[in-house]
Amino acid sequence: MTAPLPADLEQYVAEKVAAGVFTSRDALVLEAVRVYRQLELRHDLLKADIQAAIQQSDEGLSEALDIESIQRELVEELDEQGRPRQ
User: Fold this and answer.
1) DSSP β-bridge partners for residue 78
2) pTM of the full predicted structure?
């Protein structure tokens, strides 16, 4: 799989492969697409949750949010490199 990249991204990829973070350029691109797909799915779920919460609020069925709990949950979803856990 070969996709042309701008020079700055090509350098970034080369650095990650040279550092051993990824075994090849293709491995990095594959991981990037996988992570993007996961983020896209998460985004869709979040939009649905927000829409449901708006509807509940409109119906007077809402409750206060626990921001600290939400932040902890989001942090737990990421690994040490900031990627979604599998």
Assistant:
1) 84
2) 0.60
